[in-house]
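Lab meeting, item 3. Inverse folding demo.
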């Protein structure tokens, strides 16, 4: 999928998103916490994780910091954000392998049952439903039995009224960009949110897909405003 919505100023100033999401760091930290808890009883020398949509590397840092045994393959199709990630993640050396590639193509090229963890943050909601359906099947294929799926994303609440309130609040928060003299970011992020509505994925839809693919212990680990973290064990 050639999604280039972050090749403009959204990619250049992606990390400024935390200005309008007060729980940004808490949300990211929870991803690391979920992975750390999952690995606490896993007896193996090396752990392979795939970060699907590595962005600027903020999530990847949490993944790598969760356990020293982890090695991460970070996949993204945007050069601007990958360049930022290379700087942020250089301290991890050979534990990180960044690849510029379409996510589905990269997963399809991955051997079956070779991955311990698939993690993704603020990525899956950007994909068309038909793309997502194939992607989830491929993720199920590459994960080892007992492997972890963890996705933190803009999962719409199942209750349409509650989701609408979350969306209205988020768009309202974009005025913070205008206050700092970045009306361009306010305009682009508002446009992005409106476009996302056409292909949104609900929390219930994601959980149903995982269960249908054979994932166990499917649950919502975190929910605040637009953001939710959903996990499942292969």
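The presenter then showed the designed sequence:
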């Amino acid at each position: 999928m050639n999604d280039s919505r972050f090749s403009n100023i959204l990619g250049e100033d992606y990390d400024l998103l935390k200005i309008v999401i007060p729980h940004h760091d808490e949300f990211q930290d929870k991803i690391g916490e979920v992975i750390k808890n999952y690995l606490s009883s896993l007896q193996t020398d090396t752990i392979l994780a795939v970060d699907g949509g590595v962005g600027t590397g903020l999530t990847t840092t949490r993944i790598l910091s969760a356990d020293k045994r982890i090695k991460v393959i970070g996949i993204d199709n945007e050069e601007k954000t990958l360049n930022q990630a290379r700087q942020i993640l250089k301290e991890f050396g050979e534990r990180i392998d960044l690849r510029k590639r379409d996510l589905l193509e990269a997963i399809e090229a991955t051997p079956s049952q070779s991955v311990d963890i698939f993690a993704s943050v603020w990525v899956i909601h950007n994909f068309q439903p038909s793309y997502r359906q194939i992607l989830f099947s491929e993720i199920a294929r590459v994960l080892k039995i007992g492997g972890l799926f963890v996705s933190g994303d803009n999962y719409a609440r199942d209750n349409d009224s509650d989701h609408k309130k979350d969306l209205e609040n988020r768009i309202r928060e974009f005025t913070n960009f205008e206050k700092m003299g970045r009306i361009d970011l306010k305009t682009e992020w508002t446009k992005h949110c409106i476009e996302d509505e056409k292909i949104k994925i609900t929390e219930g839809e994601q959980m149903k897909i995982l269960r249908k693919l054979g994932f166990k212990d499917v649950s919502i680990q975190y929910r605040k405003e637009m953001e939710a973290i959903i996990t499942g064990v292969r």
